[in-house]
Amino acid sequence: MPERRPEIPKLFISNFTVDYESPFKRHLNRLEVEIGREDYRHLKRVELLDEHPTAAQFAAMEEITGRLLKTTQNNYNRDLLQKLGIRVYLDAPHYSVYYRLPDRVLRFVASWREHTLGRFFGKVPTSETGWHRCMSPADFEARFLPDPAGGVLLLRRAGERDPALPLLTASHGPYDPHTLDVALFFLRAGKGDAAMINLGFSGREPLTDENLAKLKGWGVPLNPSNIDVIYPYVNAKGHPLCYKLEEGFGRYLRILGGPAPELVIDIHGCVGTRSDDYRLIVGLGGLPPYPTLASLGEVQENGGIIHLRPDPRLRRGLAMLRDLSEEIYVQFCSAPHQGYQFALLGGLQMLGRTFDPHQETKSLLAGEERTFLPAEDLRWLPGAGANAHQRIEARRLNPQARCLHVEIPTAVRRRIALKMRELAITDSLDASVL
């Protein structure tokens, strides 16, 4: 039976073109970079190598030139690689990418990943580590699992596990800056039992101006938007790499050990609809299997206004998210043309309405499927599917599991990252006194 090739969402294979007279104008990721001012400076760096890898060393790597040329979302970058005769290699164990030109070699280093692994293991492992006790957060263990796309970091509470505490996942890793900080914030506060962190790129993270200046000086003027000609967005079979945590959820959970969780908090980053947006969006599902309104708690309707008292698991998750923001909205679809939008009130009750998302949502930017609700000036999350793969896997292992897909605005994630740095300084001072 022939293998069914997974479909890539249309957004990620759009055949747009780039103005050759202004190759550094961003065409995708405009929302994150130009409106949200997301900070990608710490994600990767580029180096011009003095000593080139040998032919044998290149042969030991995976050449990914054909895959990148076939799947890149940016015609300018595709043509540039072909014009310069660049061959691209992936050193999977170190998660480095080499640009092999006729007269020189460039290397892209996943510096955020290196820093994260060094933080937990004191080095950058290239193979499975087993469980290691963490210095911070205290009373937790860490484990690195390699794969061809950067690997995964697992964290779990040492000793007896508590299934009532949430499992935290950061599915997009470095593409959503500071989601690791948010996960560690909850673990440190005793509000999480374990965490799964994707360490690999999604292939869409724009390069910084510093890296672009270096590349331009070396004669490789890449367009900075959607740099999927460096770290690939899809694997060798054409399947998006950014879904690996959701699709491998069951495997990672078995390695974590302990009972299947009752509550999963899937942490993502979003820009919102304005630069000072502090509103969290919690998605409960935008694709089958659809949640039903009655399954979420006690419901009362009056004149088109819906009042929902969330069930204990949903209430527990929403109460935990209050630590991030006082403004929380809950969204989901129960059918293709039936969406729900709720505002979370002070007593963790929810007030909202139902509507047809095909009629009432619009795109934030022309040509990009980033939808929002004009009536509320609020992002509309279920259009992204709201972690359907993860919900299927979680409920297969525990039919009572509740998965919350949480989109956290840039301003909130930055505040949590600053808080974590302050706590780290305090920990260091306390340790020096001891």
Description of the molecule:
- α6 (179-188) crosses α13.
- The chain is globular and about 70 Å long.
- It has 434 residues and is of the alpha+beta class.
- It is 27% helix and 25% strand.
- Mean pLDDT is 87; it is low at 1-6 and 8-16.
Helix tally equals 13
Query: What composes the largest sheet?
Result: 13 strands, mixed
**How many DSSP E strands?**
21
Over all CA atoms, what is the radius of gyration?
Answer: 22 Å
Order of strands, main sheet, comes to 6-7-8-10-9-11-21-12-15-16-17-14-13
Stretches where pLDDT is under 50 for at least 5 consecutive residues are 1-6, 8-16
Strand content bin: 25-35%
Estimate the mean pLDDT confidence.
87
Range of helix content:
25-40%
Shape: globular
Helix-and-strand structural type: alpha+beta
Distance between the termini: 65 Å
Please tag this protein with its features:
21 strands; alpha+beta; 434 residues; 5-stranded antiparallel sheet; 25% strand
